[in-house]
Amino acid sequence: MSHTNYLTPEGEAKLTAELQELKGAKREELSQRLRSAIQMGDLSENADYHKAKEDQGFLEGRIQELESILRSAVIIDSSQVRDVVSIGSRVTIQEADFDPETYHLVGATEADPRNGRISHESPIGRALMDKKVGQIAEAETPGGKIKFKIISIE
User: Fold this and answer.
1) Contact 132, 145 (CB under 8 A)
2) In angstroms, how far apart are the furthest CA atoms of the chain?
3) Tell me, what CATH number does 128's domain have?
4) 67 and 119 together in one domain
5) pLDDT tens, position by position, for the chain (154 residues)?
6) 93 backbone dihedrals φ, ψ, rounded to 5°
7) SS3 state at 65
8) How far, in whole angstroms, is CA 83 from its chain's centroid?
9) Is residue 43 part of a domain?
10) What residues have CB less than 8 Å from 18, skipping those under 6 apart?
């Protein structure tokens, strides 16, 4: 079963570049390490060989993961003017007497809360979806229930 991955154009470019790097330079570097380790002889006690094989497993796993994400990706068009919050929106919210905060609503693959990028699947992201400026949203977070007002949508 395929899961839809929502990506910004920048996120797609970043994952595509990582995939190309892994399939090109990183794979070549790993194959050199493996050749070198094999030339050392007895593979049963060759730590370099075992480490290179382990690294190869991680590399190939990441390549498969990236290919799967990109294959099922839906690219977010954030150039549209929106009057409701959707994936790709930049939303400024304000909770009670706190300072306003701005978040970029992205797919789970690109979520980075420390840098203001929250997933549409997160508690706050779900609460924001389909809301309009001026509306109050309520989210059940690990820290308890919070209410916030939507100040602006870009």
Assistant:
1) no
2) 70
3) 3.10.50.30
4) no
5) 457 889 989 999 999 999 999 999 999 999 999 998 888 877 777 888 889 999 999 999 999 999 999 999 999 876 666 789 999 999 999 998 899 999 999 999 999 999 999 999 999 999 999 999 999 999 998 889 999 999 999 8
6) -125, 160
7) helix
8) 25
9) yes
10) 66
